Amino acid sequence: MTKLSGFDRRSLLKTAALGSIATIGMPAVLRAQAPAIKIGILQPVTGALAQDGEYGRLGAEIALKELNAAGGIKSMGGAKLEMVFGDARSNPEGGTQEVERMQAEGVAAIVGGFASPICLAASQAASRYDIPYLVDVGVSDQIVKRGLKNTFRFGPGFGSVTASALDNLVKLNDAAGKPAKTVVIVHEDGLFGSGMAKLLQAELPKRGFEVLETVAHPTPSRDMANVALRIRALNPDLVIPSSYYSEFVLLARTMQQQRIKPKGIYAVLNGAASNFRFVKEFPTAAENVMDCNHWADMRKPRTANVKAEVERAGKVWLYNTPLNYSSVLVLADAIERAGSADRVKIIEALNSSTFSDHIMPYGPTKFVEGQNTGAQAVNTQVQNGDIKIIFPTDVANAKPVFPVT
Asked: How far lies 161's CA from each of 49, 109, 155, 157, in Å?
């Protein structure tokens, strides 16, 4: 063994000391960076529902970027949220397959789904692994009535939305002197539209409206001429459509071309009636169309910030974006309070949520059997190329125009 000189020993001790100081002085991120928390974002970005899926993904991306820039999950040492994106391909099977992949990648929770059939299938698949699943839109009330402990819905279901739509329709009609007495319901023939039509058929007569006919159509549809001709023959005071974007655009344009002018188009959870793309591309067909649907609370300063991000991305404002933005914030709050990426603990935290720093016109988030009881729909109307809120009055920024003919 070689004997060190005094000089060598002093040099060695000095080098070791400097090394220790350097280690102590390293940024925390280099010493012990908290592992990222994987969040599944599920949206249909190919197929018939691609537009909705893209805008849902955008809302989630904005929220995740904002949360990470603000320091991540502080109760977990600043852990960042990492998106694991899945394309549901506009069908339930695609959603289920993506949940299986997300399970393999170790996600802590899943947000999204958009369409009711996708949300039903995906949340069921997630329940097998106790993955917390936060539904963004999916309005079928079956989603939260199956007793699945992992499934939560941030927005209102179609039972709640229909009740609001009917109450506001009565207020609208009464204030105008009851000009509307007859209705034709037009709906897509899937889970969402058929469930909505069944509720409307049962409830409209109780409120003094005669349902002349209920007309179903498939999604996707390439032609609405026959539906428009049936509306013309029945000549209702009101048309109530519950459809996805492309189908309602087709219907509204066809009605415009055939000069079919009811006293009002009063949509419920319509894919186009509260959509600036429709308003900008087909302003004449869109003018005065009313809708009871999801919409952001435009009074909140945070909403303006998110809207500006959307516009910087070259996109229009669509409800999918604020719903998914807010849903991700609700989930992040639950993870923060859980102080863990453990799925069971996140489910417990969601069940005790009181989160209110979202951008929807809701009260504090409170989940009862999976449903956010603080959620509510609003009524919008296209007026002079803009989308205004006409009900409820405490959120409204315009008065309704009715009847329109």
From this structure: 21, 26, 10, 6
